[in-house]
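Summary for the steering committee. One of the milestones for this cycle was to obtain a three-dimensional model of the protein with flavin-adenine dinucleotide bound, which we needed before selecting residues for the alanine scan. The sequence and ligand used are listed below.
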Amino acid sequence: ASRPFLARNGLSETFIEPALTALAAAGATLRLHHALRRLSWNGAELSELHFDDGAVPLAAGDQVVLALPWAVTASLVPGIAAFPDSPIVNAHFRLSVTPAKPSPGGFLGLLGGTGQWLFLRGDVLSVTVSAAADLAERPADEVARLLWADAARALSLPGGPEAVRVIKEKRATIFHSPEMESRRPPPRRAANLVLAGDWTATGLPCTIEGALVSGAEAARQVLKI
Ligand SMILES: Cc1cc2nc3c(=O)[nH]c(=O)nc-3n(C[C@H](O)[C@H](O)[C@H](O)COP(=O)(O)OP(=O)(O)OC[C@H]3O[C@@H](n4cnc5c(N)ncnc54)[C@H](O)[C@@H]3O)c2cc1C
């Protein structure tokens, strides 16, 4: 069983803007384009965060949450296991005719073809495939042909699309297997360091929901609640 959620207008309106508003209201300072480059340790505890424009020393009682992709975390924190990647492939088709929505939310699960989910927003139809290791290796025009065939069949679309864009995200998520599951680390890494991110041990696959669960757990760890 599942309970699907769909962002009504996009992820910015649903997640980013409310998060920025909440952070501003809480007095947080947001520094974009300010990559963490290195960590200094004092024994088993973090002592400094190094950015391009200088180091931030940690005081007694400070807590650090690193919510970074696994590969970046592994380059900064010793002992993080490596994970194989799993691609996601999306094809976006601009339609000349806007078909009826396939469901009230405008999305449809597909079985027995190449596409897995189909999303219709106005005159743009998107077909998505997760765990798409084989598909990601195929040329974009072949991917478009396969996914259009599924979409056209599912929605009885005549002709072809007006325009197509295929996006292959090769490092979309970690590859989920029983072995990889056992490598996902718990959040607490040191007395003053907590790890967060969809790839940590959330009990969920790498999804937005997993990232949210991880963020909430990191906050509980820091606040000791
Ligand atoms: C193509 C695609 C489609 C997807 N579709 C879905 C979907 O339909 N539903 C769903 O639930 N999930 C989907 N996902 C997965 C979802 O996007 C992730 O699970 C989620 O974004 C993970 O959040 P996160 O905060 O753990 O990591 P990220 O969102 O990866 O955030 C990590 C952040 O760390 C920053 N960063 C990296 N290095 C540094 C550094 N050195 N210093 C400071 N910051 C740094 C990055 O800029 C980034 O902002 C999709 C992913 C992809 C790629």
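Key point for the committee: The longest strand covers residues 163-174.
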